[in-house]
Amino acid sequence: MSQAAGEFLRMLPFLVAAWLFVVGLYGIVTSRHLVHQIICLIVVQSSTYVLLLAVGYRTGAVAPYFYDVPVHTPAVDPVVQALALTDVVVEAAVTALLLAFAVQAHKRFGTLDPHELVQIKG
Amino acid sequence: MNHRARTALFLVGGLGLLCFYVWGLHGLPGFGHYPGPYGDLINSLTVFERHATDAVTAVNFDYRGFDTLGEEFILFASVMGANLLLRKQKDDREEDPPLDQAEDRVVPPTSDAVRVTGLALVLPIVVFGLYTISHGQLTPGGGFQGGVILASMPLIIYLCGDYKSFDHVTSHVLSEITEALGAGGYAIAGLISIMFGLNYLTNFIPLGQTGDVLSSGTILLISVLTGLEVAGGLVVLMISFFRQSLVYRKTDEESRGPR
Amino acid sequence: MIVLQAGILLFVGVVGTAVVFTRNPLNQVIGLTFYGLLMALMFFIFQAPDVAFSQIVIGAVVLPLMVLLTLAKLKVKEQSRK
């Protein structure tokens, strides 16, 4: 019983990341509103942050800043944190671009429903 | 293919994706058992090689500086694209932002407490943003975080005041120049290394003493430039969105103002 | 400590699902703000204060603001079309 619990805890962040990814994709596929789709895309992106940080985590370790901590203290991985950090800021700009697309699509075609947008020609 | 068939197809595919994803992640070492080696290597080398106590910023701007240059240009291109898409079109006219878009509701004016709090927060935010940028190599911080904090200063002014105050404080031209300086400066800082005979983006400034603000060479320089770029880019984004939502109207729309 | 991390992970999963299943974008924005702050808290618990720094401002302020402004612009168009 405790072995199953240990196994579950070992895989929990990865399960959460996979679940968020698939749920976000479900939201994108079955969406009826462009802005709802964009917010589901934000949820999909956040699942990658969970995965990145979970890979680099070490139990009982400190954050990788050695200003007041001796250099050889066990610390978590700084490389994945650097990746996640730039990712967060770039996500905002890309989402802004997508929102600008949504505004323009509404201006040109008059509808925000992705299923109707597909059928417009020319 | 209609809606139901599409949803059913996705459910099958999504379940399959979930199973394969979890099966693939099962082979990883498990949460909390990080095996290394790169993290441990960088943690032990950062202070001695770069005189920087912040391993994350050292990775961002020194060990993997070229990747950060690429990410910064993604940010730059996205801001440029959004700005382009939200620009003033031929059939747009400018209008004074109406105080209220819903005619059947009376919106109470912003309370004095909120306005005073916003005013009092402006200077601490700017100081904290500059502190975060300049101390990136010592404590949690760096160009990206500090730039984002600096960009939230005009936002506080908008949230606690109105659009007119935001318009007074920000300037589109100045923000664009700041952003361009930051992005171009990062690329040029790498070229200066080539002039010294080293590889692109190698450190060419003397490293200084660990724990000082003026330490770790090019990390500080690149951090400042990145902070400028991120702050400028986010302010340009905000200005574009505000103008598009609050100011521009099509020429055949009637003006909506408070009656 | 492990209880804290397991708890926050489950909470993030539940709130993410709730954000996706809210159909009205205006309601979703409120959920998105809460989700952004929750992610920042999770980053702190995972010993990553740098990432939490960026996430607080971006995920809880900038993103919901941009979505709200887009919705305001779209509503103006809707009203003028009718």
| Residue share in β-strands of chain A | under 5%
What Rg of chain A is obtained from the alpha carbons, in whole angstroms? 20 Å
Shape of chain A: elongated
Number of domains of chain A: 1
The residue ranges of chain C in which pLDDT falls below 50 over 5 or more consecutive positions are none
Q: Please indicate the percent range of residues of chain C in DSSP E strands (runs of 2 or more).
A: under 5%
What's the main sheet of chain C like? none
CATH topology-level fold name of chain A: Helix Hairpins
Listing every helix as H and every strand as E from the N terminus to the C terminus, the arrangement of chain C reads HHH
How many distinct beta strands of chain A? 0
Oligomerization category of the chains in this entry: heterotrimer
With helices defined by DSSP (H or I, 4 residues minimum), what is the helix count of chain C?
A: 3
Write the element-wise H/E pattern of chain A from the N-terminal end onward. HHHH
Helicity of chain A, as a percent range: over 70%
Tell me the span between the first and last alpha carbons of chain A.
Answer: 61 Å
Largest interface by Cβ-Cβ < 8 Å: A-B, 54 and 60 residues
What is the CATH C level class of chain A, in words? Mainly Alpha
- The averaged pLDDT of chain A comes out at 88
Mean pLDDT of chain C: 90
Share in helix of chain C: over 70%
Describe this structure in words.
The complex is a heterotrimer of chains A (122), B (259) and C (82). Chain A has helices spanning 2-29, 34-56, 78-109, 114-117. Chain A is mainly α. Chain A has one domain (2-117): Helix Hairpins (Orthogonal Bundle), CATH 1.10.287. The longest helix of chain A has 32 residues, at 78-109. The mean pLDDT of chain A is 88. Chain B is mostly helical. Chain B has helices at 3-25, 38-50, 55-63, 65-85, 112-134, 143-160, 163-169, 172-195, 218-247; strands spanning 92-94, 248-250. In chain B, helix 6 (143-160) packs across helix 7 (163-169). Chain C has 82 residues and is mainly α. Chain C has one domain (2-81). Chain C has three helices and no strands. The longest helix of chain C is centred in the last third of the chain and has 33 residues, at 49-81. Chain C is elongated.
Q: Helices and strands in order, then pairings?
A:
The complex is a heterotrimer of chains A (122), B (259) and C (82).
Chain A: H1 2-29, H2 34-56, H3 78-109, H4 114-117
Chain B: H1 3-25, H2 38-50, H3 55-63, H4 65-85, E1 92-94, H5 112-134, H6 143-160, H7 163-169, H8 172-195, H9 218-247, E2 248-250
Antiparallel strand pairs in B: 1-2
Chain C: H1 2-21, H2 25-45, H3 49-81
